[in-house]
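ok posting inputs for the zinc ion job
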Amino acid sequence: MRYCRFVLNGEAQYGLVEPVGGKDSILRVLLAAPEDCDCDVEELRTRRIERIALEEATLLPAVRPSKIVCIGRNYREHAAELGHEVPKEPLLFLKAPSALLPHGGVVKRPKLSQRVDYEGELGVVIGKRCHQPAADEDVKGYILGYTCVNDVTARDLQNKDGQWSRAKGFDTFCPVGPFVADGLDPWAGVGVETRVNGEVRQQGSTRDFIFSLDTMIRHIAQAMTLFPGDLIATGTPAGVGPVVAGDVIEVSVEGVGTLRNSVADE
Ligand code: ZN
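and the output
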């Protein structure tokens, strides 16, 4: 199952995405938000629409999270490239939901920053309220699906401020999508790749997470209740770097698809 959020007749809808003649297309509209339904998305009643090629659809951010929780330094080589030690427990920070940007949207480099970096990441979308799960509870039951996230960061401000809210929170700094997909297994290893103008910059596998998804979700939900639709960005592999106006960033997650955004100056 893969679904997106898009605009149909001026209204936000959830659409099932299916390949038609090799092109991803929206054929059916879900009659409820998948994260509001405690069931399999396939069980949601759907309404047929005239086929819309995905590239012609006006996409919205694939999720509507109450919060975006991010894990810093979750790949050894990335911690090393920024000169940091491997953390002893998951390092959490929050990204503002107002930073969300859909597939195809433009990342704006703020005037306040001289260095804006991409960070390609696997995104986890929560499907069920999660508060302090038991140590032996399988966290898979709380996950609705997975998506691509670009944790865009004003690196100079991150270093200057000492904490990360501003550096990670500018408008347009959280591209997400194009879909939410299930049917992939980050525990077994899922490829995460970032390209800038077609050139590969990051290539990682979730097999190399320092902290597993179980540890991440337990650690977060020990502190704050996760709600359906909440988004977890699971950390970025080595190879982060700056972008300039005119660049095109692509984040691909194996089994999900490719999130593509261009860059412009504010
Ligand atoms: Zn990140």
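notes: The first strand starts at residue 2 and ends at 8. Residues 78 and 238 are 4 Å apart (CA to CA).
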